[in-house]
Write a structure and sequence with these properties.
single chain, 145 residues, mainly alpha, 434 Repressor (Amino-terminal Domain), two-stranded antiparallel ribbon, 5 helices, 2 strands
């Protein structure tokens, strides 16, 4: 991984110094740089952090994707996380909360109850990032938010 050597040199460290700072064996750093070993994502992120860099995910416009965090206001009344298959919408806009039609009090978060809508949005998202299962499928319909 040529990137490993670039990072190490930018941090002005030898292989032995990087290995010691990252608490890994010197031969591990050497094998990664020689492309004889592919580091796990966890190890790569650790080596990046050791050299003063961070691993981030960006979209096509270079906007950084921030990780979701468990917030107290994103849990239900019994302090449970919403199920993983539901896409939580913090601070829903008018019409985004499923109970708007009933005039119920608005919570700080909600999710789309319409399963077909959620599945269509998830399918579109999977197609856009080219998940192997959908790589050769035709483009799905755009799902309005």
């Amino acid at each position: 991984m040529a990137l490993g050597k670039v990072l190490r040199r930018r941090a002005d460290l030898s292989q032995a110094e990087l290995a010691k700072a990252a608490n890994v064996h010197k031969s591990t750093v050497g094998r990664i740089e020689a492309r004889q070993q592919m580091p796990s994502l966890e190890l790569f992120a650790h080596l990046l952090a050791t050299t003063g860099f961070d691993l981030v995910v960006v979209d096509r416009e270079a906007n950084v994707l921030r990780p979701m965090r468990d917030k107290e206001d994103l849990m239900d009344g019994a302090e449970r996380r919403y199920p993983a298959h539901l896409d939580v919408i913090p601070d829903p806009k008018p019409g985004e909360w499923w109970a708007d039609v009933y005039g119920l009090a608005r919570p700080p978060e909600t999710f789309h109850r319409d399963r077909a809508y959620r599945d269509a949005r998830r399918r579109r998202s999977q197609w856009e990032v080219r998940v192997a299962k959908y790589r050769h499928d035709p483009e799905p319909k755009e799902v309005p938010f």
